[in-house]
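PT: before anyone asks, these are the final sequences, not the draft ones from last week. 659 residues across everything. Please model them as a single complex and drop the result in this thread when it's through.
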Amino acid sequence: MNVIEIVFQGEGGHGSVVAAKLLAKAAAKSGFQAQSFASYGALRRGGKVEGYVRISEEKIPMHSKIYSPDYLVIMDESLLESACRSDIFKENTQILVNGREPKADYPELKGRDVYAVDAYGIAKGMGLVIPGGMPIINTTLLGGLVKILGNIKIEHLLDVIGTSTPKPDKNMACAKAGYQGTNSFFEESSDDLSLEDHRSENGNGSRHPVYQTEKMAKCHRCQICYIVCPNLAITVQMDPFGFEVNKEICTGCGICIEECPRKAISWEGE
Amino acid sequence: MIKVLTGNEAAAYGALLCKPEVVCAYPITPQSRIPEQIAEFYAQGIMGGKFVNVESEMAALGYVTGAALSGVRVFTATSSQGLAWMHEGLHWAAGSRLPIVMVNVNRPMGAPWNLTCDQTDSLSQRDTGWMQFYCESNQEIIDTVIQAYRISESLCIPAMVCMDGVYLSYLSETMDIPEQIQVDEYLPPYRPEHKIPGGGYKLYDKSPSFSEPLGSDFMRDRYNLHELESQCVQTAVDSDEAFFRTFGRRYPPVEEYKSRAADVVVVISGSAAGTCRYVVDCMREEGYSVGMVKIRMFRPFPKELLRQALAGKNKIAVIERDISVGQCGIFYQEIKWAMSGFKETGQIYGFIAGLGGADITSGLIRDAIMSTINSPSPDRDVYWLGLDI
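LR: through. Structure below.
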C-alpha cells in the first residue's frame, strides 16, 4: 500500500505534536486516511519530541513509530546537524528546515530536496508569539510543508487551523505566509555552496550556555543544571570541581540558565 | 461523521453515544483525556446524566458500582496503577453482576515508572470475572464501547474495553463516528427490572451482593456466574453480527486475516495487530505462506473459535505485549491451554515484545515470523523480541 510518512523533529515547545495533528486533520479534509501521533523525550520544554503523520488513500493499519520518513520537518535549524548524524534519511527523504539561512552544507544532504522557511521571522512579523516574545512556528512550517506535499489543499489546512487553534487569524496568516515563503534551499544558493563537511566547533551551531569564571564563584555545585538538562549535555569536571557544557550535544534550550538558583550560568557572550 | 480523533477521544465519544446516566472517572496518564473530553461534553450540555469527580480510582469504581446497583447505565475509565487500585472493586462489580463498562488504557505497572504501553495491567485482572476486549484501532475503540454495553447488559456481566497506551490513546486517526440514531437502535435504553418506570430507582435487590446472609450461597453464585460467562462468547458473536448489520463494520472475537491457507500464523492483539497486517501483506507478496489471527476477546477466552482458527497450522507465533514474569507470555499461556488436547495443534512459539512502550515495528514482527519459519521446534517458552540478550 502507498503510505506517505512524515516526521516533525523538534523540542518541547516547538509545537511538533500539534503540527502533526493539524496536518492529519487537513489530510482527512482533503479526502485521505490520516494518522498522527508523537514520541516524547523529557516531557517538557526543551526535551526532544517527534511528531509522526501517515497519509494514505487506503485505511492505514500500521501503529508503530516512523523511522525513515518521506518528509522530514526540522522545527529549528540547530537540529539539522543531529538529524544528519542520525540514520533517519532514506533515499528520497525531502527536508523542510525552519531557518533564515540554515547551515545545510552537510554531505548527507547532497542531492536531496531541501527546503527552508524563516518561520521565526514570519511568526514574529505576524505577532504570533507567546508571552516573553518566543514566536509560535508550527503553523508557518505546516504551510510550507503543504506546499511541498502538493496533495493536501492549503484551503483545507487553513480551515483546520481556523477551527482548532487559539489565535486562528494569526495562525492562518502564518500558514499562508509559510506556504508562499518556502523555497528550495539548494536552488537559490547552489553556486556558493560547497558540499564538504565543515561542521563548526560549536556543534549544532546555535547559542549555548556557558559557565563563566567570575560567575562560577557563585556556583554551589548543587547539580541542578546537570539534572535538568534534557540532553545530558552537562558534564561534571573533577579538578577543579565544576561543570561544563558539551556544545556537541547542547541544543541551546536554556533550561539550565533558567533553573540555576545562583545565576552561575549565562548565554555565551553575555 | 468523519473525524480525526485520538483513542482517548474515541472512547469518550463512545460513552457519549451510549448515554450513560452516571460517569465517574479519575484521571491518570495516558487516560486523562477521556474524563477531560467527557467533562467537556457535559460543559457543552450535549451529555445528560451526572458527571462526578472523586478522589481516587477506587472511589470511581465504587461510585459507578453503587450507581449501577440502582439500575442506571454507567461508564468509567482508568489505566495501570489506577486499575490495580480498583482491584478489589473489580471482583465486587462482577460478583454483584453489574453491567459496568470501563475503558482501560494499557500502561505498564511500575516499578520502574513508565507512562507508555504494556498490557500486563489488565491481563493481570483476568480472574476478576470481567469481560475483556483488546482494540486494534480507534475506530474499533468507539465501536467496542457501544458493543460492550449491549453484551454486558444482556448478561449482567461487566466489560473492560482495553486500548494500548500512547500507540492508540495518543494516536489520532481518521474515523467514522456512528450516528446517534443508529446507536439508539442498536443499543436500546437500559431498563433493568429493578428500575422503576417513570424515574426513580430502588436497589437491585436481586444482585448477589444483597441476596443472602454472609456467603451462604456463595458457591452457587460463582457457579451461576461461571455458566453465564460461557455464554459471553456467543453473545459477543451475535452482538457483532447485529453491529455489522447496522454499521457495516465487524470485529469477531477471533479474527482470521489471510490465515486460512497459511502454514505459519501470527497470533497477536491490540494496536500491533495493525502493523502485523501490513507485514503479512508484504510477506505474502514475497511468497511466504503467513497469516494472522487477532484475539480481540480475552475474557472469557474464545477457546473454540481459536481452535477453529488454528486447526492444522504447522507453526504458531504468539507475539504479545505482556509477561507473567518467571513464567511466559499471558496470551501464550492461554493459547497453550486452549490448544491442549486438541489433535490438530502445531508448534507454538511465544514472543515477548514492546514491554514498557517499546515499539513493535514491522521489522520486529518480520523477525519473529522468520525465526519461527527457520526454527525446527521451540526450545523455550519465551523469546524476547527487540532486546539484545
